[in-house]
Write a structure and sequence with these properties.
2 domains, transcription, AraC family transcriptional regulator, 9 helices, twelve-stranded antiparallel beta sheet, Multidrug-efflux Transporter 1 Regulator Bmrr, Chain A, transcription regulation, about 300 residues, alpha+beta, AraC_E-bd
């Protein structure tokens, strides 16, 4: 089994050790022993940028040292960091930072640079990993699914079982799905009684005029969300309750406490786009509604 966090760490170290050479996705994939297709998808899902974008950002950021502290010719700096031509270096630098290398060398400007990714910022959860959260605003929308009352303390594995059953055996009964290939795992603790919560495996719908027998609808108002994405080399069906549980512990006990935000509602949902998942790879997003701490809105 591929160790996801060790794979990312090996990528980062390879890039740093070869910062002065040309680096291709093929080079990195060969070094870490992972398909370049999966490596590209995993890195972009985790960080929001492709691994080659990260490579170039690191090269350009590192080159600022020579710009600021040496008298090296621009051509020599370009060649030092694996660019074929001076002009290709200048164009890449301006595209990344908004200034030419000459301005960075001679004028009093500030540039946001890309430092080496800190592997300690990555949380490893049963061979899946999460990085820094991102933020999404979603307008109101509707879900239809099957509602289950489960015990919160042991609910994750049961929720996963219900989710698989719904997606493979019942989701096709819903007529007007917006995208039937996208799974929503909606958790509601607004009526938290005796340690029980409600879990609704569901899909998004255009309207709620046609609700299949035995199912229910959920209206979700507009919200700002913090989104934690975890990725790993495993089948979506093999997600374990402990994986999701550890992620939720990280979300509620560590991140929200120190973030300046607080929960804005009594629900969250899991989001899996099955088009981005297969037998060897999975991405799962957890959406938590948030508002600024102390806000009444």
């Amino acid at each position: 089994m591929i160790n996801t966090k060790e794979t990312i760490e090996a990528c980062i170290n390879y890039i740093e050790n070869n910062i002065h050479r040309k680096i291709s996705l093929d080079d990195i994939a060969l070094y870490v022993g992972v398909s370049k297709y999966y490596l590209h998808r995993m890195f972009k899902a985790l960080t929001g940028e492709s691994i080659i974008e990260y490579v170039q950002a690191r090269k350009l950021s590192a080159s600022i040292n020579e710009l600021a502290n040496t008298n090296m010719r621009m051509l020599d700096i370009a060649l030092e960091y694996g660019f074929d031509h001076e002009q290709s270096y200048i164009r890449a630098f301006k595209k990344k930072f908004g200034y030419t290398p000459l301005k960075a060398r001679t004028e009093q400007i500030s540039i946001e640079i890309k430092e080496k990714m800190n592997i300690n910022d990555i949380l490893s959860v049963h061979n899946s990993i999460i990085y820094k959260p991102f933020y999404i605003f979603k307008q109101k929308f509707n879900l239809i699914g099957k509602k289950y009352k489960i015990l919160s303390r042991s609910g994750d594995n049961i929720a996963n079982m219900h989710g698989r059953d719904f997606f493979y055996h019942h989701s096709h009964e819903i007529r007007n799905g917006v995208n039937p290939q996208v799974y929503f795992g909606y958790t509601d603790w607004s009526e938290y009684n005796d340690g029980h919560i409600y879990y609704i495996p569901s899909i998004q719908v255009a309207d709620v005029r046609h609700i299949p027998e035995g199912m229910t609808s959920v209206h979700i108002p507009p919200h700002k969300y913090v989104v934690f994405r975890f990725v790993g080399f495993f089948r979506p069906d093999d997600i374990k309750g402990r994986q999701v549980g550890r992620l939720l512990v990280h979300l509620y006990r560590k991140w929200i406490v120190n973030s300046g935000f607080q929960s804005a509602d009594t629900f969250r949902f899991e989001y899996i786009d099955t088009r981005r998942a297969n037998d060897n790879y999975c991405e799962l997003d957890i959406y938590q509604p948030i508002k600024e701490a102390g806000s009444t809105l």
